């Protein structure tokens, strides 16, 4: 009887350690997708600001001096910010690639130890936290994809218009 309890406790400890490790990886996955999203938002904002400054300098109401001051340095700064944001976004995307099979690992572990996880409050809590982090990461990833497509569509439409 004591050996069965020891085995059960050992299995519970092992499952807890595996779930905790997966939860930490899910937190890193969420952070990577959030940072990628932030970079793409910065890219979108600077692209919009760049177009606004071009429209302001192109209008007839601004003086020639203002056109010279606003057009070159500000455009260069905004373009630099766009390039950096785009590059950093791709770096975070590349880092995020290693977390793509987290859900499969969790599903496998959960199916193997379903009863144990359901009956243990700490394991259920870790499991719920993992799922929450993965949902957030998926949400951030979807938003990043939408923003990236919007930026690409904006550049294509801008090029077709001019």
From TrEMBL:
Transmembrane segment boundaries: 34-56, 76-94, 140-160
Keywords: Membrane, Transmembrane, Transmembrane helix
Source organism of the structure: Secundilactobacillus odoratitofui DSM 19909 = JCM 15043
Record's protein name: Uncharacterized protein
């Amino acid at each position: 009887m004591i050996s069965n309890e020891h085995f059960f406790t050992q299995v519970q400890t092992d499952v807890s350690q595996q779930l905790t490790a997966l939860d930490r990886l899910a937190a890193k996955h969420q952070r990577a997708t959030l940072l990628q999203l932030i970079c793409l938002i910065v890219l979108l904002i600077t692209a919009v600001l760049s177009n606004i400054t071009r429209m302001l300098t192109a209008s007839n109401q601004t003086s020639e001096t203002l056109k010279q001051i606003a057009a070159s340095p500000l455009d260069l700064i905004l373009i630099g910010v766009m390039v950096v944001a785009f590059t950093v976004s791709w770096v975070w995307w590349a880092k995020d690639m290693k977390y793509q099979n987290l859900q499969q690992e969790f599903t496998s572990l959960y199916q193997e130890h379903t009863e144990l996880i359901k009956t243990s409050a700490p394991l259920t809590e870790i499991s719920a936290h993992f799922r929450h982090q993965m949902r957030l990461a998926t949400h951030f990833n979807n938003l990043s994809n939408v923003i990236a497509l919007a930026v690409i569509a904006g550049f294509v439409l801008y090029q077709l218009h001019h």
